[in-house]
Amino acid sequence: MDSRQLLIDTMSQLMWERGYADTSPRDVRERSGVGQGSMYHHFPTKRDLALAALERNVADLLPAASELDGPGDPMARIEAYLMRPRDALKGCKVGRMTQDPQVREDPALLAPVQRAFAQVHTRWVRVLREAVAAGGLRADLDPEHLAHTLMAVLQGGYVLAIAQQDPGPFDDARAGALSLLRAAAPSTPHPTTTRRNRTP
User: Using CA atoms, how far apart are residues 164 and 35, in angstroms rounded to an integer?
Assistant: First the structure.
């Protein structure tokens, strides 16, 4: 790995652990082993390095969210995404940045965070619409609203887990969301499902 990528990876990890405000260029140099001259050759300012690291964090988040796309039962994809293993006590690499005042107050630093959540929201809406169309969820549910709800459950679950230093609240939050989704299944079979399962 070259020095530029090592600096980005190190900044990405430190921002996840400490936030932007509490990460200094010296912290990055000490952990990465990259010298000051090389660091400032690639990134003249801490902000420049932070922007590259944020893009890296976004790149880590979006492939996981892509699990919501693809073939197969949309409800199964939703359940797999909600319940996949996560380190609740470390929180979300991207969501963590919204708690940092220096990120919130800098439009350029906040932009990758906003973009990432917008893309995840789009994927949630798409799979929820698929679930409604397939008969897994009631047709009167609003996929846009529900997508925001499920994203808030995950992000809020991280906050509760970190506050209590216990992954239990995170696991309970997403299990509760899954229970609510199952309860939102239609009380009668979806017409397309009925036709599909009807025997000749």
Answer: 38
Of 3, 152, 146, 125, the C-alpha closest to 68 is 125
> In 10 A of CB 193, how many CB atoms?
14
Rounded CA separation 159/170 (Å): 8
Alpha helix ranges (H) inside the chain: 3-18, 25-32, 36-42, 46-65, 74-83, 101-104, 107-133, 143-164, 168-183, 191-197
A 10 A CB-CB count for 51 gives: 19
Assign domain 3-197 to its CATH superfamily: Tetracycline Repressor, domain 2 (1.10.357.10)
User: How many Å apart are CA 53 and CA 65, to the nearest integer?
Assistant: 19
- Give the span between the Cα atoms of 169 and 157, in whole angstroms: 6
Separation between Cα atoms, residue 172 and residue 170, nearest integer Å: 5
pTM, 2 dp: 0.84
Which amino acid type is present at position 63? P
List pLDDT tens digits, range 25-61: 999 999 999 999 999 999 999 999 999 999 988 888 7
Radius of gyration for the alpha carbons in the chain, expressed in angstroms and rounded: 20
Give the whole-angstrom CA distance, residue 71 versus residue 80.
13
Closest listed residue to residue 3, CA positions, set 36, 50, 45 = 36
Tokens standing for residue 146: 């529900």
Question: Own/partner pairs for 142-147, CB < 8 Å, 24+ apart?
Answer: 147/121
